[in-house]
Amino acid sequence: MVVILQLFGLANMEMAVVIVATRCIIRFFLIYSQGMDDYLMLGALIFTIAYQATIYVSDIHGGLGMPMATLSHNEMITFLKCTLAIEIFYYVVIFCIKSSIVFMYQRFAVGNTFKKLCVGTNILLAAFHLICVIITLAQCTPLEKSWDITKTLPGSCINLTAFFYFTSGFNIIMDIWILLLPIPTLRSLQISQRNRYVLYGVFGIGALATAMSVVRLYSIHTYTLAADPFKDGALVNVWSMVEVNIGIVCASIPALKPLLSPQHLVEIWRKRRGYSSHITESSHKKSKLSSASRSHIIAVETPNRTESAESLGIDEDASAISLPNRVKVTREFTVTTG
Fold first, then answer.
1. Cα–Cα distance, 99 to 42 (Å, whole number)
2. Phi-psi bin for 91: left (phi > 0), alpha (psi -120 to 50), beta?
3. For the chain: N or C, fewer Cβ within 10 A?
4. Average of pLDDT values for 202-209?
5. Please, which residues have CB within 8 angstroms of residue 229's CB and are 6 or more apart in sequence?
């Protein structure tokens, strides 16, 4: 059963890698619309890979899922050290996923109230997960007592069971809050009823990640009651991996929307490519002007708004280019003196 769940978790990670890679290609190289939400999701994927690598080390060298009676002293120490690293990776990944979703909300935030709620949510997420990492690193004094199998090292540890329950419960509450946060704004958008329901469905997919958080909480409950934590600890790690990978996939699905309109996506890419080619060609022509020619350059600045290419008199090949805010466009006139 544990092996099957481990394979399931690994398959989820592979799916998350494909989804995030596709998201980055679209945002970074096709539509040039990358933002903090994309960087955070990329960070979530990197730490998830580190998470999976630590589970692999725990499996090979720490006897993950094996009965305690069959493990050596060194294997048990390796298992507990890997567990500590896994806890830190988990909190970092969860923060990146949740914060990425909130930053995505800010892309379509129109009201000051909604923007402030998004900022406040991100501050709360950052503060909470930073505290979780600090507490994890200071769970025992000294820290070596965390993997002291002999129980002879002097010191003390916090109640990890209560800590795990609290953090899991808080994350579930934050999941529900993040799901409900954009609903008033989505209802106020001037779009068709059909598109509004589609948006509800896209954001509602996040409920699946919340369901995985509940399953993980149940696995924690089972783990705390287990007579052999070394054997039953595997289920917590597996369900944690499933939770974070499902979260990455659900949070990245809205960013894949351009794939539903491939023709429009290709058109945007061609516009970007055409704009780059137009600039290169203009620079090349400028370098070939003879000394008997004079160039009069008129700079047109577009503050706080986007001008159409046609209104600025740009050639037909670049007429479909949307110029970003506060971009200077130059028009060159060459007058050759006889």
1. 12
2. alpha
3. C
4. 78
5. 68, 223
Q: What are the tens digits of pLDDT across the range 139-165?
A: 999 999 999 988 889 999 999 889 999
How many whole angstroms separate alpha carbon 236 and alpha carbon 168? 12
CB atoms within 10 A of CB 46: 14
Q: Residue 170: pLDDT band by 50, 70, 90 thresholds? A: very high
Q: Where are the alpha helices (DSSP H) in 181-320?
A: 183-188, 193-204, 206-224, 229-252, 262-287
Residue 285, judged by CB atoms within 10 A of its CB (0-12, 13-18, 19+), counts as exposed
- Which tens digits make up the pLDDT trace of 13-41? 889 999 999 999 999 988 888 899 999 99
> What CATH class does 2-260 carry?
mainly alpha
Distance (Å) of CA 160 to CA 76, 155, 212 = 18, 15, 21
Which residue matches tokens 């805010």? 325
What confidence score (pLDDT) does residue 116 get?
A: 94
Among the listed ranges 26-35, 132-141, 267-276, 277-286, which one has the minimum average pLDDT value?
A: 277-286
CA 200 from centre of chain: 20
User: Phi first, then psi: what are they for 336, rounded to 5°?
Assistant: -95, 125
Rounded to whole angstroms, the Cα distance separating 28 from 32 reads 5
CB 301 within 8 A of CB 330: no
